[in-house]
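Supplementary Note 3. Input sequence used for the single-chain structure prediction.
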Amino acid sequence: MRSRTVVATAIGTTALLGATGCLPVGGHQAADIGKAARASAGATAPAPSGSGSDESKGSGAGSGAGSGKLTDLSGREILRRAHKATREAESAHVVAKVRLDGKPMAIDLSLDKKGNCNGVIRLDGMGRMDLIKSAELVHFKGDEAYWRGAAKLKNAPRKQTDQMVAALAGRWVKVPASDARSAAMAGMCDLDKLTSEAGRDSVLARKGAAATVGGVPAVAVTSPGKDGTETDYVATEGTPYILRSTLSGKEDGEVSFSEFGKPVDVTSPKDSDVLDMGKAGGAGPGEAV
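The predicted structure, written as discrete structure tokens, is reproduced below.
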């Protein structure tokens, strides 16, 4: 998957913070996160298998005509098939390590094409945010570091910051999905947008060694880009999904995909102390304290 695609999803976090009324969204687009979504190949690339035997296991939707081996295809054709399969997935679990405005960000989200998502986002200096989004509701929960970081970005006085932390840290906040304040979150919870550039192939794509990603046999395909060397690890058994993508060079990052087709759990938190912003007027939670 092209690096700019996945990095763009992490940027949805900025939009999410903006939706809470605690951080301006700015001009980021949901598709920018792909840029940072690759990690240094040396440190995070899946370990190569002991032999080329894993390559011979490719079959199913991604298999090549004739021998039935995905690995008999060119690197460019493997990418084409992998991108098509990944774009067609109805849901996936995405784990990414990227940098946003120079700060490390970690994303762990399950999301689907209906806009549902469930997971955790961590940003250096902004703590942790838990997120559950369904067609009807958005629930999010920030820890103390999150709310203090949000208050700092708004230049809130110390007293107001302490009040906000006391009222909101570790507490679920609920906003209707139809509310304008939650509109900015739609992009980061949309699997279609996350994979919007997955159709791009590269004439310079080169098939590499066999590897194993999360116990699944795969083949590495490298392609040079303006931000560095991109490496996609494509499943060679069953559907040829992209299992991991890395970027090593001017920008480093990593994104992993798993649990394709698994329903996303968007069950509302079982907590009687949820703050319902649909009943709190027009202010964001930061201004409601």
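The longest strand covers residues 91-100. Confidence is low (pLDDT under 50) at residues 1-67.
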